[in-house]
Amino acid sequence: MAVDRAFVGRAFPPSEPYRVGREKVREFALAVGEGASVCHDLDAARAAGHPDLVAPPTFGVVFTMPLMEALLRDPAFGWDYARMVHGDQAFTLHRPVHAGDELVAVLHVDDLRSRAGSLMLTLRCEVTDTAGAPVLTSTSLMVTAEAPDVPAAEPAASGVPA
Amino acid sequence: MTDALAVGDALPPLSLQVTRAGLVRYAAASGDLNPIHWSDRVAGSVGLPGVIAHGMLTMALAGRLVTSWTGDPSAVVGYGARFTRPVVVPDDDEGVALELTGTVKGIDDAPADDPAAGRVATVLITASVDGKTVLGRATARVRLPA
């Protein structure tokens, strides 16, 4: 099963709005050990000028990863999910994510390259509020084996299984 | 922290323990339930030496070098990293130490049309376990207090 290159350049329909929960922000902050008061204490966040708790910088993964997973597990796309590694990840934060935000993500398939038996896929999620104002951009490089049915050499790209 | 900040300045280093319990907590908080992050059996079946940390957890932990420096996670305006080496987390109470250091690589002035935005520092973070780096080009851009 080969990957379907016709997906490259495609943008998917906007996701259902994701509501950032106050307790989810606290839970995520605790899980990454982020102790800043603006992530936990509503009074502190408001005193610092925020409308509600501030989500840690990588919080966007919580609601963007499921969109990417849906594509990567779609049999029509033909991606070898079992041997995938997450090659790199970048976030541009146009503003902080706050509890109470309702966020909409659009997944873009930006690029697909072959290199030494590996496929390197660049996915981008443009996240806005429900009025369309930009909130964050997430860019992910996913890597997998190019041809699942051919004995592959060592993966060319290093990375951590996602 | 930033009164006389200069390119080349080092951030205060940080050492964080990554434990199995921490992986389980992150799995739940992030929704990433991939069993290679909690099952030795599954991790071994895909050729890993054991359970490994989520790359996104390692990245988030490394980001704390910057947020603990500024004291303000909302000051981070950009953050990226390459996942270059798995962080194997042993099944014991201590876990593994993630050693973090960072250097200011650049300081950009506020845009002329938005002076209130403040200056932005670019920080290169080094994250290592047992002396080997586990992230590549880990770079955070952080807004500095006016």
Written description of the protein model:
The complex is a heterodimer of chains A (162) and B (146). Chain A is 17% helix and 31% strand. Chain A is α+β, with helices and mostly antiparallel strands and 162 residues long. Chain A has a domain at 5-20 and 58-147: Thiol Ester Dehydrase, Chain A (Roll). Chain A has a six-stranded antiparallel β-sheet, covered by helices on one side. Chain A starts with 17 loop residues before the first strand and ends with a strand. Chain B is of the alpha+beta class and 146 residues long. Chain B has a domain at 54-143: Hotdog Thioesterase (Thiol Ester Dehydrase, Chain A, Roll). In chain B, strand 4 and strand 5 form a beta hairpin. The interface between A and B is large, with 40 and 45 residues.
Gap between N and C termini of chain A, in Å? 21 Å
In quaternary terms, these chains amount to: heterodimer
Which series of helices and strands of chain B comes N to C?
A: EHHHEEEEE
Q: Low-confidence parts of chain B lasting 5 or more residues at pLDDT below 50? A: none
Shape field of chain B: elongated
- Largest sheet entry of chain B: 6 strands, antiparallel
Secondary structure elements and their pairing?
The complex is a heterodimer of chains A (162) and B (146).
Chain A: E1 18-19, H1 22-31, H2 42-47, H3 61-72, E2 85-93, E3 102-115, E4 118-129, E5 134-145, E6 160-161
Chain B: E1 14-18, H1 20-30, H2 40-45, H3 55-70, E2 76-83, E3 96-108, E4 120-129, E5 132-133, E6 135-143
Antiparallel strand pairs in B: 1-3, 2-6, 3-4, 4-5, 4-6
Keywords:
heterodimer, A: alpha+beta, Thiol Ester Dehydrase, Chain A, elongated, B: 146 residues, alpha+beta, six-stranded antiparallel sheet
Task: Give a quick rundown of the structure.
The complex is a heterodimer of chains A (162) and B (146). With 162 residues, chain A is of the alpha+beta class. Chain A has helices spanning 22-31, 42-47, 61-72; strands spanning 18-19, 85-93, 102-115, 118-129, 134-145, 160-161.
